[in-house]
Amino acid sequence: MFFERPESGEIAVLVHIDFHDQNDNHGPEEFVELAISAGADPVAVVTGSRQRADSKFFVGTGKLDEIKDIVIREEAQVVLFDHALSPSQERNLESVLNCRVLDRTGLILDIFAQRARTHEGKLQVELAQLQHMSTRLIRGWTHLERQKGGIGMRGPGETQLETDRRLLRERIKSIQKRLEKVNSQRDQSRRARSRSDVPTISLVGYTNAGKSTLFNRATGAEVYAADQLFATLDPTLRRLELDEVGTVVLADTVGFIRKLPHRLVKAFQATLKESAESDLLLHVVDAADISRDENIAAVEDVLEEIGANELPTLKVFNKIDALPTAEPRIDRDEHGNPVRVWLSAREGIGIELLEQAIAELLSEDIVKETIVVPVNQGRFRAMLFEQGAVKGETYDELGQSVLELCLPRKDYLQILARVGMSEDQIQAA
């Protein structure tokens, strides 16, 4: 029901209105991309400005007549609004325009339905769609009366609308239970990674910023990457080996967008939790986008909503190949810590700088020392080797082991405690 798509693009008229009392007005360019990503064929973009939305039709009667004329002339099949419409506004617009009307939330849900590939992703999208649809059910059932009485005609005493709402509620509860199970499985996987001290790094960012291209470049994976909005919907995890840190898990996640429907954020809690519980976020930014700063702010808003705004974050300014003067580099704060990396994932420029910056940020809790282990501390030496912490071993003139170490500080302190030693007792080479 939710994943069947027409073979050809539907002729669409787009509507974008700026409001005088809003500071975050944006042009219709992104909405045009959204429509194309959904498979629509935009033939006209109707723009305008108002003090506030009309309660009945959202737009004024003059603008409504303009839209209707274009719909008739172009034989449009759907009118897409770059705004959130109330159910009554959608009904009123459809009755005048004589075609389907879809708001921004419905359009994004449609794109997500097309992109979902995994069982979990489809469940998440269906949940968001059902919740969105539940407020609009009356549109499809206004022509039905209460079920009639009489022999062979007695019903349960519900209108068709009430029956359908009850079925919807049952389906929503069923999906929520299944997603809770998925969430539990993800939590179990995260706990297992935490116990094994494998750091998790999540790629986050505005849709079409190049996250999947960077993910493929860094890990050698073949995640679907395309120059379109929401090319990636289902999360993908891969192991990555970094020289200074060892094994890390890199997660590619769904892209964010301005005015991301709250229902989608709620439905994708299990997926987004992967980002919220990461050790490091890589905030991928399209450096060549003229709306770069606004996109960064939109991503930070969603990160705050999912409780990930306090996590260590490294901004990755991607697509520098589209900037004539940009060079690959690392920008640092006043303490010398990396805060931004400039690169091109598509061209493979600056990837080594990204790995260097990640290693610096994750190695704060890494012990990288060369120590001297006396002959009588063989158990200590053996435990370091068992942990895989020894990167090199030589011997001094007294026959003592000189070990080059690299391991998490937590593991190092645990080994010292097990052999009854403290860091003060360790001799540096």
From TrEMBL:
G domain boundaries: 201-319
Gene Ontology terms: cellular component: cytoplasm
Cofactor: Mg(2+)
Sites where the protein binds GTP: 205-212, 230-234, 252-255, 318-321, 344-346
Intracellular or extracellular location(s): Cytoplasm
InterPro entries, per the entry: G_HFLX_dom (IPR030394), GTP-bd (IPR006073), GTP-bd_M (IPR032305), GTPase_HflX (IPR016496), GTPase_HflX_N (IPR025121), GTPase_HflX_N_sf (IPR042108), P-loop_NTPase (IPR027417)
Domain of life: Bacteria
Entries under HAMAP family matching the protein: GTPase_HflX
Task performed by this protein: GTPase that associates with the 50S ribosomal subunit and may have a role during protein synthesis or ribosome biogenesis.
Protein name per its UniProtKB record: GTPase HflX
Organism: Marinomonas aquimarina
Protein's gene: hflX
